[in-house]
Write a structure and sequence with these properties.
The chain has 24 helices and 13 strands. By secondary structure, the protein is an alpha/beta fold. The strands form three sheets. The chain has a six-stranded mixed β-sheet, with helices on both faces. The protein has a five-stranded parallel β-sheet with strand order 1-3-2-4-5, sandwiched between helices.
Length: 554
């Protein structure tokens, strides 16, 4: 198997472009930061205002304009325009101000941007492969201007966040996800390829919208869909040998099947299944440092029974098995609850991914009743149902547990099962809380609690970087377990004292580097790596990370 390209150090660029062509290339453009010498050498004299600015001064201008805008959608559009004209400046702003910029570039704002994608569309980014491209996908992929692609994030737009089928509008997800790969893990933007597979949509509002950018036909299904995906996967390996393919926001039925079909054939993972599981596991490990309990003693009840919930249960049971808990006993500690009630063996509507967690129990159709009956130590919301964790549910968790674990992980914010303030107030400050979208600090009885996101952005960038650095042939459960343990290890006692189960977003590049080293170490230990193991693995990985500070062209 061919090795995927390793992110190289970024030396002084060698330019063949001159003049306006440089200013119109976001990978080369520095705007007013071009020095006098560069302006003379590159034919830029007179094409820019005479004052030479630093990147820091340019960031000040960007942030001033960012704060002047009326809402996050306008800020999203402003940052998208910045990315399309000056990549280095965009990533510098994102890296230096993650708490403020990341929720606009990705969740929760990206959900609204996807819903309105056709109305705010200005310039294509990434590649759209549609049903009409069948039979020539490799040819189409060769239109991408960069050959050294290390990672592809791909979606078919059928299950965008908690918003459902958004068709071609789902392109905002791969673009946003790969922006985080660069910002959080330093994978060079030229090695990141966002792809939207447009196989149609069932969204009638989009089909009737004259500004919708995708195919106006029903989705491919069955054998046609499978053949389309097979051709796509084979084409990625032909055009970009060994590339890491991350499946994102596919419908549950497709997500599990694609992971099963391709995980042993190519280097791939599904972030909705495995990334969500790892970040949730890290939150559990942090919470257990507060409660003093053991993972094997936890009883976990997931509201939702799709990709995220099953992935969480799979990783929890794998971690319990590593602690010498028998498999059946480990699975018995994990429960699922979906729109039709508790997942139990007697149900006749269970999908294959439900069955390992379908236990012998009376059917319950009320989540509060399930909490009262099962007495979980942790409830995890991955349902996409807003306000599903009601006051009675949180109060019941608090009666049952001195420090209840309450994770409301659904995205965007409008779909969160409860807010941080609700979880803290209803539990009298005792809840160990995490959310998928950001919530502000909460002051309760004179104490300020700082919730942090149980967001996959802590996991997938480091996993991707580690896989690429080692040239791993496959992505394994052990890699996600290592990522979860490493992430939890970055949480300090100060973090825990203020209710934070994750480190600050400002530390995400350091966290990602350490996760990458842990993932690469798994690849080397299990014989999955195709590159020589460096003596200083962490140092080597840090040396590969893209730095968006400007470099001299002369």
């Amino acid at each position: 198997m061919a090795q995927p390209p390793s992110p190289p150090p970024t030396p002084r660029p060698k330019l063949t472009a001159r003049g306006v062509a440089i200013l119109h290339n976001p990978a080369l453009n520095k705007g007013t930061a071009f020095t006098d010498a560069e302006r003379d050498a590159l034919g830029l004299r007179g094409l820019l205002p005479p004052h030479v600015a630093t990147q820091e001064l340019q960031m000040e201008r960007i942030l001033e304009n960012f704060h002047r805008l009326p809402d996050d959608l306008e800020r999203y559009k402003y940052l998208a325009a910045l990315l399309n004209r000056n990549e280095s400046l965009f990533f510098r702003v994102l890296i230096d101000h993650p708490d403020e910029i990341m929720p606009v570039v990705y969740t929760p704002t990206v959900g609204l941007a996807c819903q309105l994608f056709g109305h705010i569309f200005e310039r294509p980014r990434g590649m759209f492969l549609c049903a009409d491209d069948r039979g020539r996908m490799a040819e189409v992929l060769r239109n991408w201007p960069y050959r050294e692609v290390s990672i592809i994030v791909v979606s078919d737009g059928e299950r965008i966040l908690g918003l459902g089928d958004l068709g071609a509008n789902g392109m905002g997800i791969p673009v946003g996800k790969l922006a985080l790969y660069t910002a959080a893990a330093g994978i060079p933007p030229s090695q990141c390829l966002p792809i939207l597979l447009d196989v149609g949509t069932e969204n009638r509002a989009l089909l009737a919208d004259p500004l919708y950018v995708g195919l106006r036909r029903p989705r491919l299904r069955g054998a046609e869909y499978d053949a389309f995906l097979e051709e796509f996967v084979l084409a990625t390996q032909e055009v970009f040998p060994g590339v890491l393919v991350q499946f994102e926001d596919f419908a549950t039925s497709h997500a599990f099947e694609l992971l099963r079909r391709y995980r042993d054939r190519i280097c791939t993972f599904n972030d909705d299944i495995q990334g969500t599981a790892a970040v949730t596991m890290a939150g559990f490990y942090s919470a257990l440092r507060v409660t003093g309990g053991r993972l094997a003693d936890q009883r976990i009840l997931c509201l939702g029974a799709g990709e995220a919930a099953t992935g969480i249960c799979d990783l929890v049971t794998a971690a319990m098995r590593a602690e010498a808990v028998p498999d059946a006993q480990a699975r018995a500690r994990c429960w699922l609850f979906n729109s039709k009630g508790l997942v139990v063996k007697a149900r006749t509507d269970l999908a294959p991914h439900h069955r390992p967690y379908a236990h012998d129990h009376v059917q319950l159709t009320d989540f509060l009743a399930a909490v009262e009956t099962l007495k979980p130590t942790a409830i995890v919301g991955v349902s996409g149902v807003a306000h599903a964790f009601t006051q009675p549910i949180v109060e019941a968790m608090t009666r049952l547990n001195p420090r209840p674990i309450v994770f409301a992980l659904s995205n965007p914010t409008s779909k969160s099962e409860c807010s941080a303030e609700e979880a803290y107030r209803w539990s009298r400050g005792r809840a160990l809380f995490a959310s998928g979208s950001p919530f502000p600090p909460v002051t309760l009885d004179g104490r300020t609690l700082v919730p942090r996101q149980g967001n996959n952005c802590y996991i997938f960038p480091g996993v991707g970087l580690g896989v690429i650095a080692a040239g791993a042939r496959h992505v394994t459960h052990e890699m996600f377990s290592a990522a979860a343990v490493t992430l939890a290890g970055q949480v300090t006692e100060v973090d825990l004292a203020q209710g934070s189960l994750y480190p600050p977003l400002g530390q995400v590049r350091e966290v990602s580097a350490r996760i990458a080293a842990a993932v690469a170490e798994v690849a080397y230990r299990h014989g999955l790596a195709t590159r020589p193991e460096p003596k200083d693995l962490l140092g080597h990985i840090q040396s590969l990370m893209f730095d968006p500070r400007y470099r001299s062209y002369v």
